[in-house]
Design a protein that fits this description.
The protein has 7 helices and 10 strands. With 229 residues, the protein is an alpha/beta fold. Helix 3 runs parallel beside helix 5. Bound molecules: adenosine-5'-triphosphate and magnesium ion. The site of magnesium ion has 4 residues, from helix 1.
């Protein structure tokens, strides 16, 4: 199923006289298996576009579709459920809960989805295995390196078998060797499961290895470039 932004504006009202376009006339189609990056200077609108795709914020004008579903017509509760069902998230600072072990961090969103206990256990094991951390599930985040913490957050993002992963600057806090390992893991998950990825990034290594680069400037997607990899 495709995710689509159609003629989307997002206007932030900082005050009555100060309105900022976070996104301006954005048209974007994301298909199964896409591996794309939003690239642009700080404040250009990358996070805003990711938050719009996620339905975390609603467009001021325009429409957001997932398949036949118009996301802007859903209630807050329905949008939250939709996000849990179809999307996984990865952040620059991992956003793991410090009081939970790696395995428990992965479990947490699965519990919100009310899976049976046995299925939760299987999915956590599967996800830890996919990211190469099958022996470290009992460690707490502070007992793991940055790269390992990011692997836990990737495991958490895939454990619910989403259709799309939204990743905001996922390699920004990693050294270059670890960043490359994480990019290789994204590529593997993209190829093996046709899992769709959309990144926001300043990392040239990641920009060089995605299939599609979307250049963002002043809230607009100004240009897109396809890599033939
Ligand atoms: N909640 C908000 N309220 C008001 N203005 C906002 C809000 N969020 C973002 N903006 C503004 O919208 C514009 C786009 O911001 P956004 O966070 O999407 O940029 P970005 O490309 O992700 O930047 P960075 O690379 O620094 O993360 C900026 O001008 C920003 O100041
Ligand atoms: Mg941002």
């Amino acid at each position: 199923m495709q995710f689509e932004l159609l003629n989307v504006d997002k206007i932030y009202e900082v005050s009555q006289e100060n309105k900022v376009y976070g996104a301006k006339n954005v048209n974007l189609k994301i298909s199964e298996g896409d591996f794309m990056a939003l690239v642009g200077p700080s404040g250009s609108g990358k996070t805003t576009i990711l938050n719009l795709i996620a339905g975390l914020i609603l467009p001021t004008h325009g429409t957001l579709r997932h398949g036949e579903e118009d996301i802007t017509k859903l209630s807050l509760e329905e949008r939250t459920k939709h996000r849990l069902d179809f999307m996984g998230f990865i952040f620059q600072d991992y956003q793991l809960l410090p009081i939970l072990t790696a395995a428990e961090n992965i479990e947490f969103p699965l519990q919100l989805k009310n899976y049976p206990k046995k299925e939760i256990k299987e999915r956590v094991e599967w996800a830890l295995n996919q990211v190469g951390l099958d022996k470290l599930g009992n460690r707490f985040p502070k007992q793991l390196s940055g790269g390992q913490q990011q692997r836990v957050s990737i495991a958490r993002s895939i454990a619910g078998k989403p259709q799309i992963i939204l990743a905001d600057e996922p390699t920004a806090n990693l050294d270059s060797k670890t960043a490359q390992e994480i990019i290789d893991l994204f590529k593997k998950l993209n190829q093996e499961f046709k899992l769709t990825f959309i990144f926001s990034t300043h990392d040239q290594r990641l920009i060089d290895q995605v299939k599609t680069v979307l250049y963002v400037k002043d809230g607009q997607i100004s240009e897109s470039r396809i890599h033939h990899v």
